[in-house]
Amino acid sequence: MSPIHRINPAELSPPAGFSHAVTATGSQLVFLAGQTALDQRGGITGSTLPEQFATALTNLLSALRAAGGAPADLARVTVYATDVADYRANAAELGRIWRRLAGRDYPAMAVIGAVRLWDEQALVEIDGVAVLP
């Protein structure tokens, strides 16, 4: 049985690509550092938000797998975007990328606008918390 339980009350707007609340009863927390579209050499790859989002999410999931977790173990994810309007304009494609890489078990999520990220060429950064069984 999964330690993650997603809660989406009927009185709230239907969630699209996130869960309104998540409870977790597992035995180990994994705090995932913010990941951008850095490649193994430390350079940002991709020039568009969807390209960078795919790489940043892949990096986050790689760190999660290295800690013994899987995408369904994500309880909370925060996305930092340097252009929220661009994020909204690409929301459908970003959702397809999420489903391809992480499936349909959505964590509680937030998207936060940021003036700039640590890596100046980064358009997006993703961090999270996972709960392992």
Provide structural commentary.
This protein is α+β, with helices and mostly antiparallel strands. 27% of the residues lie in helices and 29% in strands. It contains 3 helices and 6 strands. The protein has helices at residues 49-66, 84-89, 91-102; strands spanning 4-7, 21-24, 28-35, 74-81, 108-113, 124-132. It has a 4-stranded mixed beta sheet with strand order 3-6-4-5. Strands 1-2 form a two-stranded antiparallel ribbon. α1 runs parallel beside α3. The protein is globular. The model has no long low-confidence stretch (mean pLDDT 95).
- Spatial strand arrangement across the major sheet: 3-6-4-5
Please report the number of helical segments: 3
The largest pleated sheet is described as:
4 strands, mixed
Stretches where pLDDT is under 50 for at least 5 consecutive residues are none
Number of strands: 6
Average the pLDDT over all residues and give the rounded result. Answer: 95
How would the global form be characterised? globular
Features:
globular, alpha+beta, four-stranded mixed sheet, 133 residues, two-stranded antiparallel ribbon
Summarize the helices and strands and which ones pair or pack:
Elements: E1 4-7, E2 21-24, E3 28-35, H1 49-66, E4 74-81, H2 84-89, H3 91-102, E5 108-113, E6 124-132
Parallel strand pairs: 4-5
Antiparallel strand pairs: 1-2, 3-6, 4-6
Helix pairs in contact: 1-3
